[in-house]
Design brief:
The chain is an all-alpha fold. The chain has one domain. A two-stranded antiparallel ribbon has the order 1-2. A hairpin with a 6-residue loop joins strand 1 and strand 2.
Length: 252
C-alpha cells in the first residue's frame, strides 16, 4: 500500500544522489554558493534518476520511506567520500613533499575547505581536480551511482559493515598512493641533504651551507617535473580499486 510520501518514487533515489554531491569536493566545500551547490546537485539528480530507477522502487508506506531515507543518505555519502579520497591521496603527497622541500611554512586559503594549506598541497589538489576530470573520474563516479541503483535498489537496506570496510580500505589505499608518489623525491632530497652535509664538513671554506637550500629546491623542482607523469596512472589505478570496492559493497 502506498500513501503520502510513498507516492513520491523519486524521493529515495534523489536522496542518494544529493548525498553523493554533498560528500564530493566539487560541491561539498564552502567555496561555491549554497544555491549553486544545490542547483548542481539537483541537476545531477535529474540526470541520474530516470523512469527505470523510479520503477525499481518497491511499494512502501510513508513510515517505510522515512525509515529507508537514512540508508539512501548513507549509500550516497559512502560513494562521494570514496571518490573524494583521490584528492586526499594527492594532498598527502603534496604535504609530504612540501615538508621535505621546506615549503610548508608558506600557505594559502584552500577554497574547498576554507582552511590554510601548504602551497604544494594546494597545487597537488588543484592538479588532482584537473586530472580527475581528464581521466574520466566524473564519468566513473556517475556510473558507480547509476550501478548502485541496480545493486541496491532504492528502499533496500545495505550492509553498513561492508560500506565501512570499503571506506577503510580505500582510505588506507589513498595514504599508500600518496606516500608512493612522494617517496622517490623524498629519497632524492635525503641524498642531497646527506651530500651537502658531507661536503660542508669536508670543504668548510666553500660555504656550501649558504646555497644548500637553493640546491635542494632546484633538485626538487626538477624531480617534481619527472614525478608528474606518474600521477595519472596512480589516479586511474586508485579509482579502479574504489569502483571495484564499491561494486562489491553495493550488492544485495
Amino acid at each position: 500500500m502506498r500513501d503520502g510520501l510513498a507516492g513520491l518514487d523519486f524521493l529515495l533515489p534523489t536522496l542518494r544522489v544529493l548525498s553523493v554531491a554533498s560528500a564530493f569536493p566539487f560541491l561539498a566545500g564552502p567555496g561555491a554558493p549554497r544555491l549553486a551547490r544545490l542547483g548542481a546537485a539537483l541537476a545531477l539528480a535529474l540526470v541520474l534518476v530516470g523512469p527505470a530507477v523510479t520503477a525499481s522502487v518497491p511499494p512502501l508506506s510513508t513510515a517505510a520511506v522515512l525509515f529507508a531515507a537514512p540508508n539512501e543518505i548513507l549509500i550516497g555519502l559512502a560513494i562521494g567520500a570514496a571518490f573524494s579520497l583521490v584528492f586526499s591521496a594527492l594532498f598527502i603527497a603534496g604535504e609530504f613533499l612540501g615538508q621535505e622541500m621546506g615549503l610548508n611554512a608558506a600557505s594559502q586559503i584552500d577554497p574547498v575547505t576554507g582552511h590554510n594549506v601548504p602551497i604544494l598541497s594546494r597545487l597537488f589538489e588543484a592538479l588532482g581536480i584537473v586530472l580527475f576530470v581528464e581521466v574520466g573520474g566524473l564519468a566513473a563516479m556517475l556510473r558507480t551511482v547509476r550501478a548502485s541503483f541496480d545493486g541496491i535498489p532504492p528502499g533496500t537496506l545495505v550492509s553498513p559493515v561492508r560500506l565501512a570496510t570499503t571506506l577503510v580500505d580505500a582510505g588506507a589505499a589513498s595514504i599508500g598512493v600518496g606516500i608512493r608518489l612522494a617517496l622517490p623525491l623524498v629519497l632524492v632530497l635525503l641524498l642531497v641533504t646527506l651530500f651537502s652535509t658531507v661536503a660542508l664538513r669536508a670543504l668548510p671554506r666553500v660555504h656550501l651551507f649558504d646555497f644548500a637550500y637553493a640546491i635542494r629546491i632546484l633538485v626538487a623542482l626538477v624531480f617534481l617535473g619527472a614525478l608528474l607523469p606518474r600521477i595519472v596512472p596512480a589516479i586511474e589505478g586508485f579509482m579502479g580499486r574504489v569502483m571495484e570496492g564499491l561494486g562489491g559493497a553495493l550488492r544485495r
